[in-house]
Amino acid sequence: MSALVAFRNVSYRIGGREILRDFNLEIDAGETLVLLGRSGSGKTTALKMVNGLIFPTSGQVLVEGKATSEWDRIRLRRRIGYVIQDVGLFPHFTVAQNVGLVPRLEGWPPEKIETRAEELLRSVGLEPRQFAARRPRELSGGQRQRVGVARALAADPPLLLFDEPFGALDPITRLEIQRQFLALRESLGKTAIFVTHDVREAVTLGTRIGLLKDGRLDTLAAPGEFLRTRGAEVEAFLAVLGERRDHAGRVAP
Amino acid sequence: MPAGLLPEIGERALEHLLLVAVSLGIATGIGIPAGILITRRAALRGWIVGFANVMQTVPSLALFGFLIPIPLIGGIGERTAIVALVLYALLPILRNTLAGILGVDAAVRESAVAMGMTPRQLLWQVEMPLAARTILTGVRVATVATVGTATIAAAIGGGGLGVFIFAGIYSVNTQLILAGALPAAILALAADGGLGWVERRFSLA
Q: In Å, how far are A19, A49, A116, B57 from A45, measured between CA atoms?
């Protein structure tokens, strides 16, 4: 029962389609589990079950040992940071107000929210004096996603969910922000579940990779082991890396 | 235009404004909450928008006439006129509230929910501020239309600038018609301009 998040025989059906089938997975505190898969493999659905945006048709998702259906949804969601590809910053709030949203909902005193927002902006590489008062529309895509990450970290949640957060960024910005993600992970020691269809990103960021195929867990392995795994779907993903794999099976930079 | 009419024009214009203001107050008070309700209950959407749509298609003079025999809300006078004007003003307000809220970016709404906003916080801190401009457009359209339609209120004893227009028509007196029509047009333009200005102030988002 030490797993922070556990999927127990989770199935999800909608409109006669089975998105997840008998899905089992445990995520331990401190790890970054990457859910890798093609579009429609069920990875986003699995992610949204963790913070109660979707509930299983059958089976259970346990967070801190308690089924999501038993949690007070609002409390559950405020304990979990959430970052999505489209960022979803509030266009009518300033950057600082966006970052301070959950602390404000939680009733923190204003000075504390302000200090926290500044600290977080700095930690994602945005100078507060320059950015705090801006509106989201005055930011580049990469800057927006940084604000999105800062917002997710605001109330210091033990668990973070990422749904293809860097998918819409140009390759250079993506690399920068991935590096920052790794540095943040080192310093904060958060648990993260990270959804992506980019195998390179999975290998770079994950401490374990869970490969989904047609709503089932196909393969679960640490990155090094994943690169050596045999199997149709793993190989289909590894083929994307192509000759970039060196003889040790590692991804060339 | 005979200068002797001026005090009466002022009086009728005030009456007219009052009719419009009261009708719009009520229409907004019903239209916005009903619009919010149907963003939450898709099953009611067809019925409520349908009702407002049908009301809008009834010719205005006929609607005033239909209301006269109805007990409580009907009869001759201002009250009936206000009921009819409210029914007319409802559709643009309702429709724009619906469109404004449904038009909020899905990613923004998903973030708000995932951050742990309660449904009420989602509505007041995210959906309403972002829909405000569209809703105000609906109120402006309803206002301009009501200023015009309110001239017909005179036909059932509702007063307002229509009194001149009807009197002018019966006595074939163009000046009298203009004494009602010109101030009504000016009021409509002023309402359009004023509310348009307020609307632009909401263009932040």
A: 7, 6, 31, 45
Collect all residues of chain B within an 8 Å Cβ-Cβ radius of residue A75: 116
Of A91, A102, A135, which is closest to B115 when you measure between CB atoms? A102
Q: What are the residue ranges of helices labelled H in chain A?
A: 43-50, 73-78, 95-99, 101-105, 110-123, 128-131, 141-153, 171-188, 199-205, 223-228, 232-241
**Cα B174 from Cα B195, distance rounded (Å):** 31
Instruction: Supply the pTM of this predicted model.
Output: 0.86
- Residues B152-169 pLDDT 10s: 989 888 889 999 999 999
Instruction: For tokens 């951050």, name the residue.
Output: B115
User: b/e per residue, A184-222, with b = 16+ CB within 10 A?
Assistant: bbeeeebbbbbbbbbbbbbbbbbebbbbbbebbbbbbbe
Cβ <8 Å between B116 and A91: no
Buried b (16+ CB within 10 A) or exposed e, A80-110: bbbbbbbbbbbbbbbbbbbbbbbbbbeebee
Q: How far is B40 from chain A (nearest CA, A)?
A: 17
Tokens of A82: 């959430």
What is the mean pLDDT of the segment spanning B137-143? 96
In this structure, what token pair is assigned to residue A208?
């374990």
Looking at the complex, report in whole angstroms how far the Cα of residue B128 sits from the nearest Cα belonging to chain A: 11
Q: What is the pLDDT of residue B205?
A: 47
CB contact under 8 A, B116 and A89: no
Per-residue pLDDT tens digits for A41-69: 999 999 999 999 999 999 999 999 999 99
The ipTM estimated for the assembled molecules is 0.88
Residue A146 burial (CB count, 10 A): 25
Residue B50 CB neighbours (<10 A): 10
Does the distance separating the beta carbons of A84 and B116 come in below 8 Å? no
Residues A154, A101 contacting (CB under 8 angstroms): yes
Find out whether B150 and B20 touch, Cβ atoms under 8 Å: yes
Dihedral sign for Cα atoms in the order A3, A8, A13, A18: positive
Per residue in B79-127, pLDDT (tens digit) is 889 999 999 999 999 999 999 999 999 999 999 999 999 999 999 999 9
